[in-house]
Amino acid sequence: MTEIETLDRPATRDFTAIAEDFAASCGKHAMARDDDDSFVAENYRRAKEAGLIDAGVPAELGGGGADVRALCDMLRRVAHGCSSTALALSMHTHQVAFPAWRWHHQQATRDKTEPLLKRIAAEKLVLLSSGGGDWIGGSGKAEPVEGGYRITARKMFVSGAPAGDLLMTSAISPEEGGTILHFPCPMAAPEVSVLDTWHTLGMRGTGSHDVMIEGLFVPAEKVAVKRPQGRWHPIFFMLGTIAFPIIYAVYLGVAERARDLAVEIATRRPASRLLRDRAGRMETALCSARLAHAHMVATCELNTPGAKTVGQVMTGRRLVEENAIRTVELAMELAGGAGFYRKAELERLFRDIQAARYHPLQKEIQSEYVGALALGQSIDEIF
After folding, report:
1. Sorting pLDDT into bands at 50, 70 and 90, what band is 132?
2. Tell me: the pLDDT tens digits for 282-322?
3. Closest by alpha carbon to 298, among 284, 312, 319?
4. Which of 108, 251, 301, 383 is 20 to 30 Å apart from 358, CA to CA?
5. Which of 73, 79, 70 is nearest to 22 (CA)?
6. Are residues 257 and 136 in the same domain?
């Protein structure tokens, strides 16, 4: 058995109770936000009041002190009330958990991570990230100018965009051989605008609009990382290990909610072998998703980010995807025609769970990546 060494850092708040109360509040408006394609803006205000925005900031810096396991549990519970709120918050939360992990485990980086973490705790800053297709390959242009860079880019799938304060993003500098620069982009800058593009099958309330950056000046000292384009970098081994257990906790929560709704509907119908079979297969799929997610969290808690660690996390991510989707499909079957009505909520969860397919590493890439590891081949350009 793998020995998992973790630090005993109890959270300063009862995030189980906070998340459950918050989920109940979010659930009252989830259908309305889905119906009118509108962002869950009010839930962000409540999240700040409830202490969810700074949950992952170390307690020593004024935050909630929640580790990755606690953050996953928090977001899983929030998803029981509103999938969109949970997914949008996961994109902020993993951006907090990453510098928090570095603050704890890479103390030499504290001069870089601590100021941001303190601001999140004090100001309740909301962090944004661009979509997974932008991560290792990068997108946008960084033109070198005196004192820094001029950024022009269009970033897709920026969840929570209408509520964001800082977009943690990157751009490519052709003049520097295709080097990718990572930097924070202030959403209030006049060169930055949110485009109304998020009209989708599911997760309609996440506000994952495109963000346009037109000529934003980024001072050289604000560039956090420079790296080669199109290759895995240590920062992505860390980010990949920490972020995806947090993001996929949301999909596990969606599957759990669908399961509970389907059981509630099915128990009002006469007992039959058919219902028992569907319920049993649904329970098995959900158990598989839970086990896979637990593996992701346990791998993260090894605190050894690297190529093999990412392989384990991404294998768990694929298994959560497949089994969470299957759980909701079987929940629809178990509920029968009643689940087809929008008022039953299952229909929305069925649409929302489909988003689990689209984050990195998607299944074909995950298979190639893990296969390369097994065969002793390079994974440097598999993403």
Report:
1. confident
2. 999 999 999 999 999 999 999 999 999 999 999 999 999 99
3. 312
4. 301
5. 79
6. no
Distances (CA, A) of 269 to 208, 276, 284: 39, 11, 21
Q: Within a domain: residue 362?
A: yes
Same domain, 31 and 115: yes
Compute the Cα dihedral for 362, 365, 371, 373 and give only its sign: negative
What's the CA gap between 349 and 332, in Å, rounded?
10
Q: What is the mean pLDDT of the chain?
A: 96
Whether a cis peptide bond, with omega within 30° of 0, leads into 128 is no
Q: How many CB atoms neighbour CB 127 within 10 A? A: 22
Q: Is it the case that residue 3 has pLDDT exceeding 50? A: no
Tell whether 8 is covered by a domain: no
More reliable by pLDDT, 167 or 5: 167
User: In the beta sheet, which residues pair with residue 173?
Assistant: 179
pTM (predicted TM-score) = 0.96
338: domain CATH number is: 1.20.140.10
97-125 burial by CB neighbour count: b if 16+ within 10 A, else e? Answer: bbbbbbbbeeeeeeeebbebbbbbbeebb
The answer, yes or no, to whether residue 12 has pLDDT greater than 90, is no
Which pLDDT tens digit goes with each residue over 335-371? 999 999 999 999 999 999 999 999 999 999 999 999 9
Spell out the SS3 assignment of 91-152: HHHHHHHHHHHHHHHCHHHHHHHHHHHHHHHHHCCCEEECCHHHCCCCCCEEEEECCEEEEE
d(CA 194, CA 254): 28
E runs forming strands in the chain: 127-129, 141-145, 148-158, 166-173, 179-186, 192-194, 209-219, 225-227
pLDDT at 133: 76
Closest C-alpha among 34, 43, 69 to residue 55 = 69
The number of folded domains in the chain is 3
Contact 53, 19 (CB under 8 A): no
Structure-block tokens of residue 116: 């941001």
Per DSSP, the three-state class of 293 is helix
Give the pLDDT confidence score for residue 2 in this predicted structure: 30
